[in-house]
Design a protein that fits this description.
Elements: E1 2-11, E2 20-34, E3 40-46, H1 59-70, E4 78-84, H2 94-109, H3 116-127, H4 133-138, E5 141-147, E6 150-156, E7 162-169, H5 175-180, H6 188-207, H7 213-216, H8 223-226, H9 233-242, E8 247-250, E9 257-262, H10 266-279, E10 284-289, E11 297-300
Parallel strand pairs: 3-4
Antiparallel strand pairs: 1-2, 1-11, 2-4, 2-5, 5-6, 7-9, 7-10, 8-9
Helix pairs in contact: 1-2, 2-3, 9-10
The structure holds L-homoserine.
């Protein structure tokens, strides 16, 4: 049996739209094994289990199928178990875990040997961008890009004292809906604003300058357009910063807000964000998390 554990991720981190990502210590697990010929058994447990399909249309199985097709076809019988702790459609990389989990499990089941570059490219081609799949595969913080040869990524080590709190609204935010409100063109001044912030964010993380994160996580490329979809978002960011968060932003396409914090500040920042959402009539749970240096792990038993 192959078991793949994949971390949650937060994409964009404010200014790094479709390029920056961070792995977090909340996990989904994909298990895969051969079964009697003619069998397809798919067990779904945990977050969103009732809303996911239990056949080849399931995202993890579609990802696995890409690998099986490259390697001579689907196994005659397959048993899959997916255990999810990451809420769906909340901007915490749940679909990236399915894609990465499916690819690595299918690779393991068919002899292994897939390179990290191949896994990244297969996963990003299925997701459409690499900002969640890169940290899901590599851990840490990642910068990803695409050129005519495919996707690439560079992994950075976040400072040890950096923590995170996710405010997770009860309302989901499908990525397609959050992308549909974005303009095709942006003012040059906004592009300049984000270029500087994204560069500063990478420098702040690599040099441990946590004091720069507030400035470095500002964004004008996607959050201003998306905030109208999410009552309480702007207030939650302001509330988090007021009680000492180092930076706060929409996690991926939302609906969660992620605050970067010094590790001991989790409870007060979480309460502040939850209160801000509730004042706008939006229910919300909070999770105190931590960036994780470890990306997806594969074990064979
Ligand atoms: N970069 C993506 C977005 C993240 O903001 O739409 C969602 O996967």
């Amino acid at each position: 049996m192959i078991a793949v554990t994949v971390p949650a991720t937060s994409a964009n981190l404010g200014p790094g739209f479709d390029t920056l990502g961070l792995a977090l210590n909340l996990y989904n697990r994909v298990e895969m094994d051969r079964a009697e010929p003619g069998t397809l058994e798919v067990l779904l447990e945990g977050e969103g289990a009732g809303s996911l399909t239990a056949d080849w249309s399931n995202l993890a199985l579609r990802a696995a199928d890409l690998v099986f097709r490259q390697r001579g076809g689907r196994p005659p019988g397959l048993r899959v178990r997916i255990v999810s702790s990451i809420p769906l459609a909340r901007g915490l990389g749940s679909s990236a875990t399915a894609v990465v989990g499916g690819i690595l499990a299918a690779d393991g089941l068919t002899g292994g040997g897939m390179s990290a570059e191949e896994a990244l490219n297969l996963a990003a081609s299925l997701e459409g961008h690499a900002d969640n799949v890169a940290p899901a595969l590599c851990g840490g913080m990642t910068i990803s890009w695409r050129n005519e040869r495919g996707y690439g990524c560079l992994r950075l080590e976040p400072p040890l004292e950096l923590g995170a709190v996710a405010a997770i609204p009860t309302v989901p935010m499908p990525t397609a809906r959050a992308r549909a409100v974005l303009p095709e063109k942006v003012p040059l001044a906004d592009a300049v604003f984000n270029t500087g912030r994204a560069a500063l964010l990478v420098a702040a993380v690599t040099t441990g300058r946590l004091d720069l994160l507030r400035e470095a996580t500002m964004d004008r490329l996607h959050q201003p357009y998306r905030e109208k979809l999410l009552p309480g978002f702007r207030e939650a960011v302001t509330a988090a910063l007021e009680v000492g968060a180092l930076g706060a932003f929409l996690s991926g396409a939302g609906s969660s807000v992620l605050a970067l914090i010094r590790k001991n500040d989790g409870a007060k920042v979480g309460e502040a964000m939850e209160g801000a959402f509730r004042q706008k009539g939006v229910g919300c749970a909070t999770r105190i998390l931590c960036p994780t240096p470890q990306g997806a792990t594969v074990s064979i038993s």
